[in-house]
Amino acid sequence: MVIIRGLKAKPELNGKKAMVVPPTAEERETLKGTGRLIVRLIDSGEQFAVKPDNLKTTAEEADAMMGSSLEDISMYNPAIQSEAAKLRESGKLDDLANDPELKPIFEDIKKNGMGALEKYWNDDKLMAKISKVMGTR
């Protein structure tokens, strides 16, 4: 999954989640020499040709967010609110919060806000464990 960023001709697409999809033979001909990729919007299924520089992976988006203040970030980012709601509904968040190794981390984040997450973000072993439970790696 990718996030569209920096479009000037269609700024309404910025921030939308999309999947890169293989072009049809006709699209391949049309795109030849442009360097553009075909992306399909997750929310509507519409397809657009976008330059790779305007696509960010979710990991790149997360890294960019980590570079900014994490305080109240969900209040300003509807995509994060939506993903958090899906996570709560799936029960995976409960699985993470009840894991003996992760429980103190979740308590720290609840007590000290999202800024506490910065302490754990670069712990590769911890992030790998969370990704495994989430089914993202």
List the helices and strands and how they pair.
Layout: E1 2-4, E2 17-21, H1 25-31, E3 37-41, E4 47-50, E5 55-57, H2 58-67, H3 73-76, H4 78-90, H5 92-98, H6 103-112, H7 124-134
Antiparallel strand pairs: 1-2, 1-5, 2-3, 3-4
What does this structure look like?
This protein has 137 residues and is of the alpha+beta class. The chain contains seven helices and five strands, in the order ββαβββαααααα. β3 (37-41) and β4 form a beta hairpin. The longest helix has 13 residues, at 78-90. 5% of the residues are buried. The model has no long low-confidence stretch (mean pLDDT 80).
Shape descriptor reads elongated
Radius of gyration from the CA trace? 18 Å
* Main beta sheet: 5 strands, antiparallel
Task: Name the helix and strand elements from N-terminus to C-terminus, one letter apiece.
Answer: EEHEEEHHHHHH
Count of discrete alpha- or pi-helical segments spanning 4 or more residues: 7
Number of strands: 5
Task: Tell me the strand percentage band.
Answer: 5-15%
What is the end-to-end distance? 13 Å
Compact overview of the structure:
It contains 7 helices and 5 strands; from the N terminus they run ββαβββαααααα. With 137 residues, it is an alpha+beta fold.
